[in-house]
Amino acid sequence: CVRKLTNDLYWVGADDRRLALFENIHPIPRGVSYNSYLLLDEKAVLFDTADWSVCKQFLENVEGVLKGRKLDYLIINHVEPDHSGSLPALAQACPNATFLITVQGANELKEHYGDIFKTQIVKKGDTVSLGKRTLAFQPIPMLHWPDSMVTYCPEEQILFSSDAFGQHYCCSKLFDDETEVENMFFEAQKYFANILMPYRKLVPNTVKLVRSLPLKMICSCHGCIWRSHIDDILSRYESWGKGETVDRVLVVFDTMWGGTAAMARAMIKGIEKQGMRVKLYRYESSLKADIVSDLLTAKGILIGSPTQNSGMMPTIGGFLTYLKGLKPTGKKAAAFGTYGWAGGAEKDMEAMIKESGMELLPGYNVKWRPLPAELEAAEQYGYDFAEKVSKGE
Ligand code: FEO
């Protein structure tokens, strides 16, 4: 399943439609692709490898295109195992290849696999000649790891962008204009929110750099190849990087006996009355990747849990732990729920909301089960929360 992209450039990656969780945490209902590219000039150069689980297919693809030629260079844009897992096998199959990598990448490579590879360090502005074409290297540290870099081929006007601009999506068609592009944007937003959100402040500068390059294609390591919607994906990255939002609030909750669920439903009525858009998620029956994707562009979030064993429910604890790592700053947040005798969930949730970097607003909590008057108050609470979010108070 090799794809020819231009006269001398081939997609030699592999898809995995069976994996349920990427990094053992992110649900990937549309699968994951490990995009690797092979360019045949006077020198043959491969851009990244693939996860070990697809190594056999990946090596067959590479060998099928090389047809006995030797591989001269391997560009290692990123060391994370989804791109380096097949590296030991590739190194055995192509013993003459020189690995071009950032200094951080070379260290990470040693720390992952031992000091077994022949590497050549490249830094910002370095170039290498392939014959008719050249490659220029630009580190983009922390998008996604310290080692990350992008590689540009000016003669082809192609950027090999590593994780940046990727999506968890197995595309039967590779180009953005061969498939339903809205699905690509949906998955790109989810990818950005769940993988790159902690580093999003670095994104606008990267977009600026990418915009300075004449571009016919952006070849990411995951998902589709951008060629017809380059400006659109760059604008979206810019916007997500700057933390731009729409008028939307999320209500995310778990419940034991239905009291916290009833409060959530009352609150969304109030939020809607105020005019703000709202999305309701019962945490246990939702994909957290989808919630976080919506949170990326939301202005606020209400998080609900009843008290269980003097604290919040472990489901909501897991969600808040996840948010603490993602640091969704620039949002307003509050906690709500029911409690029996001593309480505890509210305190737990509020502490973790603060740790996540969101702005904590006062919450609303009810003893035992919300009675009609308390549900009315919950609706009013939703209205007031939406008002504060809307006015930026
Ligand atoms: Fe696709 Fe950060 O690895």
What this model shows, in words?
It is a single chain. A seven-stranded mixed beta sheet has the order 1-2-7-8-9-10-11. The chain starts with a strand and ends with a helix. The relative contact order is 0.09. It contains twelve helices and 23 strands. It is an alpha/beta fold and 393 residues long. Helix 5 (181-196) crosses helix 9 (288-297). It has helices spanning 55-66, 81-84, 87-93, 103-113, 181-196, 203-211, 230-242, 259-274, 288-297, 314-326, 345-355, 372-391, and strands at 3-4, 9-11, 14-16, 21-22, 26-27, 32-34, 37-40, 44-47, 73-75, 98-101, 119-121, 127-129, 134-139, 149-153, 158-162, 217-220, 225-226, 248-253, 277-282, 300-304, 332-339, 359-360, 364-367. Helix content is 36%, strand content 23%. Bound molecules: MU-OXO-diiron (FEO). MU-OXO-diiron binds next to helix 2.
Major sheet description: 7 strands, mixed
Share of residues in strands: 15-25%
Query: What proportion of the residues is helical, as a percent range?
Result: 25-40%
Number of strands: 23
User: What is the radius of gyration computed over CA atoms, rounded to a whole number of angstroms?
Assistant: 24 Å
Bound small molecules, deduplicated: MU-OXO-diiron
Q: State the shape.
A: elongated
Number of helices: 12
> Structural class of the helix and strand makeup?
alpha/beta
Strands ordered across the widest β-sheet? 1-2-7-8-9-10-11
Q: Quick check: average pLDDT?
A: 97
pLDDT < 50 stretches = none
